[in-house]
Every structure is written in structure tokens, then in C-alpha cells.
């Protein structure tokens, strides 16, 4: 709605009311501009109402550059902004009703519409019983509430209250501050300049700006900067979490590949797990099965070795029997041969004996 862009206002070379002031006001906001007297708060209203021209910088109201606003359009521009002053500025010769209805009459609104509008505004400020009194018959708090009602008569989009409680006591200051807050809650943008602690406390929920020596500090800009830093920090933390998550997922994806590619490495990783856990139990069962298979293999090997030994023993026995039989046969042959030799010797002896006997007979 409202933009001040590096606005500077110098009344003379030695007096700088505003020094490169920049801020934005959104529609429906409640703004509280604080600062000591003479800090430049009233100058903002004068620049906004086109009472003063900025020395430097630009001012935009509803996307329209006020600096280039033609003189003929200034009255129309001012109707969009309701001004509330410290000294009320009520016309002393008119009663309360007439003070509120004056702007509507100038704009040419019909009487029934003016009556309805003024009645509603008097109800809003809770002063219906004061309608036909004159300004001097009112207290300071009452006069300021009538001033607020008059500022609302043209249905402005922005109310600018410049030190509205400067001449009021604490109770009336609180009443006026609550009234401005209520107007804002009804949808009107409200800017209040003050150094009154009662108003500051009553409007504690408002966006705060501080003017001092012509320089402005905006709480929203600080909050936006803080939020930006916090957001950046959160995004950084989120990115770190995402990176860690991706690393873990990547590690999980690579684990089966490592398991297949290096059995020794897998066994090393498995041994680092809890021995009494599921994997340890599974590993133990696998080892038991391996031992049982190995035992069965050993038994089969022993049986095969035993069978082989038995066959070798049987073979040795058969060979021994064969050798014994062969030896017996050879012995029998030798005996038979010996017997034959003996028989032949006997025959030779018989023949010699016969020959001897024959020789003797011949003789």
C-alpha cells in the first residue's frame, strides 16, 4: 500500500528530518512509529499528505508516485488518508455532528446517507450523547475521539494518527489507543506515531519502527532478516539430512555388491556383528551343518578306507595261499623226483648185483 524508498527531507543544510528512510506498509497492518519529539515522525505524515516535498527519494501510495502527483489530484489523494492530529483540529464554530458531516457534505453525499454515516461513527467512538455539543464543551479525550470519527467519515484506506495522545491523560490515552486498535481490526490500515508509553503498551502487538535523528529502524526488517537466516539454516540442515540419507541408501545398495565380490570381506563384516544375534545364530547353524557334512564325509572316507584295507588283506591272503600251494606243489615235485631217483638207483643196484652174481657164476 505505502512505500518510502530512500526518502530524505532536509529543511536546511543543518537540519535533516529524514535521512534515506526506507519502509513498506501492507494493507491492513497496524504500525507503531516511536521516537522522541523532533525525530521526524510528523514529517512522514506531511510528505504522505503532499504538504511537503521530499529532498530525495520516492514515495508510492497504492502504486502511485506521490512526487509526480498533479496539484489537481492532491485533494482526491488526501481523501484516501484519514489524518488525526495531536491538537484535534476541530472547527470551533461547528457542533460535533457538523464537524463529522462536513467532509461528506463537501463530497455531495445525500442527507440520509450523511445521517446514517455520522450516527454509526458516533456509536463507534461511544459519543452519541455529545452530538450537538461544541468542541470547547468536550474533554481532551472526547475531542480526540471525535477527531478520529471525522477522519473515518470518508472511509479512508489508511488512518495516520500523529501523536494522538500528546495532550491526554493516561486513561484517555488508553481509550484512544484501544479505539485505533479496534479500527484496525475492522480492516483499516493504521499508522500511529507516538512516544507515549501507555500507547506503546496498549499497541504491543503492532509492528514497530523507531525514528531517531532522522534514521529509521524497522522491526519487520530485522525479523525478516532473522527469518531468512533461520530459513537458510534450516535448509542447510535439511540438505545435510538428505545427503546423509542418500549416503546411507547408497551404502545399503553397495553392500550386496561388496558381499558378492569379496567373500572374505563379508565374513569379516559378519564376524563384527553380535554373535548371539540372528545372523550369529544363522552362522552357527551353517557351521554346524558344515561340521555334520564334514563328519559324514569323514565316516564315508573311513568306511571306504576300511573296505579297501579289507580287500587288500583278502588279496594278500589269497596270494599267500597261492604261494603256499605253489610251494607245496614244487615240494611234491621235488619229493617225487627224489623218489624216482631212488627207484632208479635201486634199479641200478639190482642190475649191478645181478651182473656181479652172473660174473661170479661164470667164473
CATH H-level superfamily title of the largest domain: P-loop containing nucleotide triphosphate hydrolases
Average predicted local confidence, pLDDT: 79
What is the straight-line distance between the termini? 188 Å
Query: The biggest beta sheet, please?
Result: 6 strands, mixed
Q: What proportion strand? A: 15-25%
Strand order of the largest sheet: 6-7-8-3-9-10
The ordered string of helix (H) and strand (E) elements is EEEHEEHEHHHEHEHEEHHH
Q: What is the approximate shape? A: elongated
Helix content: 55-70%
Secondary structure category: alpha/beta
Computed Rg:
62 Å
What number of domains? Answer: 2
CATH class of the largest domain: Alpha Beta
Low-confidence stretches: 340-344, 359-363
Descriptive account of the structure:
It is a single chain. The chain has 363 residues and is an alpha/beta fold. Helix content is 58%, strand content 17%. It is built from ten helices and ten strands. It has helices spanning 41-48, 74-79, 96-106, 111-124, 140-152, 170-185, 197-202, 219-261, 263-271, 278-362; strands spanning 2-12, 15-25, 30-34, 56-61, 64-65, 81-84, 158-162, 189-194, 207-212, 215-218. The strands form two sheets. It has a six-stranded mixed β-sheet with strand order 6-7-8-3-9-10, with helices on both faces. Strands 2-1-4-5 form a four-stranded antiparallel β-sheet, covered by helices on one side. A hairpin with a 2-residue loop joins strand 4 (56-61) and strand 5 (64-65). The termini are far apart. The model is unreliable at 340-344 and 359-363 (pLDDT under 50).
